[in-house]
Amino acid sequence: MALSKIDSEIEQVDQEKYLRQATSYYQALEKPLKYGPEVNSLSDLVAALHREFESNYVNIEMVNHLMLSYKSNPREWRKYAKFDRYTYTRNLVDAGNGKFNLLILCWGEGHGSSVHDHADSHCFMKMLKGDLREKRYEYPNRSARDNGRSHHPDGEIDSRELVEIGETPIAVNDVAYINDNLGLHRVENPSHSDTSVSLHLYCPPFDACSVFQDNLKKTTAKVTFWSKYGVRTKQNEQ
Predict the structure, then answer these.
(1) Closest Cα to residue 201, out of 5, 39, 86, 4?
(2) Considering the entire predicted model, what is its pTM?
(3) Cβ atoms within 10 A of the Cβ of 19, count?
(4) Contact residues for 47 (Cβ-Cβ < 8 A; gap 6+)
(5) Among 31, 50, 30, 173, which Cα is nearest to 102's?
(6) ∠ Cα 21 69 46 (to 5°)
(7) What percent of the chain has pLDDT over 90?
């Protein structure tokens, strides 16, 4: 194996470690930074994100700024917006050289996610069209939030442990942020007449997360893509 490839892999491991450690303290910006760069298009956003992730020590606040600064333009993202009549879809826009994933999620009328975590990664969610509603929950059995309640074996939790801690509407160009230290969440399109579209950034990227089902059992769910770069994926390529 070439030394340059080994060095690259070491750098990526270091960056992942740094980003995961940052979830322990990062809370999110409410508005763009005064000194941050302008983002005038979706392609500007992608290029700026690639520049930020060139460093092992990613400025997560600047990543937040970039997501806040982009203003939704349907002409730019429409080709990635693929809907399914039965469920919301996850559509890959940019794979971030393995350092982040930028996705467009499409939500039909009334569609919603399960309660889930983010595998110790950062999740930024920006509204592009319509509205979404986020319900947030305490993360059960997590040491930072462990308040002495008993835990059920086999990954099951009782209803006293899945505690809702907030509900927030997300409107066009708003950005929501979550990581596992802030809790779990469920996202849904509250409208039964209009669709919604959102732009999500995950860093580091992950291929599985924990889902807390209605029967309160914690399971592992594989993360898949309905489309990649505007093209429908085959089942074995998801």
Answers:
(1) 39
(2) 0.88
(3) 24
(4) none
(5) 50
(6) 70
(7) 79
- The label of the residue with tokens 């994926």 reads 233
Residue 228 has pLDDT above 50, yes or no: yes
Please name the residues in contact with 12: beta carbons below 8 A apart, sequence gap of 6 or more. Answer: 98, 99
Q: Amino acid letter at 125?
A: M
Give the residue from 172, 177, 92, 105 showing the smallest Cα distance to 134: 177
Annotated binding residues: 116, 118, 185
Can you tell me which residue has the tokens 């919301």? 88
Domains of the chain: 1-232 (2.60.120.10)
Averaged pLDDT score across all residues of the chain: 88
- Burial class from Cβ neighbours inside 10 Å (0-12, 13-18, 19+) for residue 134 reads middle
Residues in contact with 81: Cβ distance below 8 Å, sequence separation at least 6, in sequence order: 91, 104, 106, 197
Per-position b or e across 91-125, b if 16+ CB within 10 A of its CB: bbbbebeebbbbbbbbbbeebbbebbbbbbbbbbb
* Token pair for 174: 């708003």
- For the annotated binding site for Fe cation, the residues are 116, 118, 185
Longest dimension (CA), the chain: 56
Contact 89, 105 (CB under 8 A): yes
Per-residue confidence band for 235, with pLDDT thresholds at 50, 70 and 90: low
CA distance 101 to 123: 10
DSSP codes joined into one string, 18-66:
HHHHHTTT----SS--TTSPP--SHHHHHHHHHHHTTSSS--HHHHHHH
For residue 10, which phi and psi values (nearest 5 degrees)? Answer: -65, -45
